Amino acid sequence: MIEMPPLQFAETNGIRMGYYEAGPKTDTPPVILCHGWPEIAFSWRHQIKALSEAGVRVIAPDQRGYGATDRPEPVEDYDIEHLTGDLVGLLDHLKIDKAIFVGHDWGGFVVWQMPLRHIDRVAGVVGINTPHTNRAWADPIELLRKRFGEHMYIVQFQDPAHSVDKIFNGRVEQTFDAFMRKPVPQAESTPAEEPVAGVGASPRLNLAFPQMIANYDARHDPRTPILSPEEKKIFVDTFTKSGFTGGINWYRNMSRNWRRAEGLDHTVRVPSLMIMAENDRVLPPSAADGMEKLIPDLEKYLVRNSGHWTQQEKPDEVSGKLIEWRRKRFG
After folding, report:
1. Residues 96, 111: Cα–Cα separation, whole Å
2. Start-to-end Cα distance in the chain
3. How many distinct structural domains can be found in the chain?
4. Minimal CA–CA distance to 117: which of 223, 270, 224?
5. Which one from 62, 70, 79, 105 is the annotated catalytic residue?
6. Is there a domain that residue 287 lies in?
7. Which of 26, 72, 126, 154 would bridge 102 by S-S if both were Cys, CB 3.0 to 4.6 A apart?
8. Containing structural domain, residue 209
9. Which residue in the list 35, 82, 132, 308 is annotated as catalytic?
């Protein structure tokens, strides 16, 4: 049985945002859970249950472009200023002064930006798989293009014709069948490849995700699914309705975000936790090397035998670590 609290709505930053809330309203600071791509607040179902049962107030929004939340048309409406501004507006709506922001995948990029832009609203930050890095020395899309070529999915996502969106929109079930699986265990003898600094992923990884989805057949996939059929149906139904463009628009702002971050101090001055997943191929633990230079108050934790979808692959371990760290740091 899949449990989620009732869906609620907040008017924030010019959009209507859907969110889920559980746990005692008196608990402070509350925990805001921010999902990645292609996900929704439902990705945090296990943490919502575990944290609220442990007495923690927890809030999980469908972020801009996703699920029950509005999907504005202009691409610029998905830049990092809008995405962090949405979370500030959510705090305002709930009359919350400060929160701990927890983010996975793209949500991780957003939560690491919160203390750089809205320090007075941030009690602490937890990144899951997504490291905090300094501003790249050049436009990140150009760096990705040089390193991985034109077929790298983030480079393909820059196409103004939105041709890749159609691949995902036309194959919603295939997308979740292909993505939401545990990785094949790596052979002991395979040397780990170094990821690209500030970008993640090793150079030999096949990152042509649109083509992978277009040619995917679940019958020939030996990997173990993470989602039950009921859980998969929730993702498939949600994205069938919303499409993928809203989420992909986050990627279409990477160059804009990079340009507009010039001169921004990237030091994170709040208690922080970095949860890494041993077998994440796109955001490997080595991508978090050197974070201590930018985050004076940082704890790191490695989840073994987990791929990219850490909070869904290892829900009890992730929830347990979040509860333990929050108690230790915030009582």
Report:
1. 16
2. 32
3. 1
4. 270
5. 105
6. yes
7. 126
8. 7-330
9. 308
Q: Is residue 1 part of a domain?
A: no
Domain with residue 247: its CATH number is 3.40.50.1820
Residue 1 has pLDDT above 70, yes or no: no
31-34: strand order across its sheet: 7-12, 15-22, 58-61, 31-34, 99-104, 122-128, 272-277, 298-303
Considering the entire predicted model, what is its pTM?
0.94
Do 57 and 39 meet the contact criterion of CB atoms below 8 Å apart?
Answer: no
Residue 320, SS3 per DSSP:
helix
> Which residue is listed with tokens 């575990």?
50
Q: Pairing state of beta strands 99-104 and 58-61?
A: unpaired
Sequential DSSP letters for 176-228 = HHHHSBPPPPPPTTSPPPPPBTTTBS-TTS---HHHHHHT--GGG--SPBSS-
Q: Within a domain: residue 2? A: no
**Interval 140-170: pLDDT, tens:** 999 999 999 999 999 999 998 889 999 999 9
Reported as a single tens digit per residue, the pLDDT across 173-216 is 999 999 999 998 765 434 444 444 444 544 455 789 999 999 99
Query: Average pLDDT in the 241-251 region?
Result: 97
Question: What is d(CA 161, CA 248) in angstroms, rounded to the nearest whole number?
Answer: 12
Based on the residue annotation, tell me whether 105 is a catalytic residue of this protein: yes
pLDDT reported for residue 190: 43
Active site residue 35: no
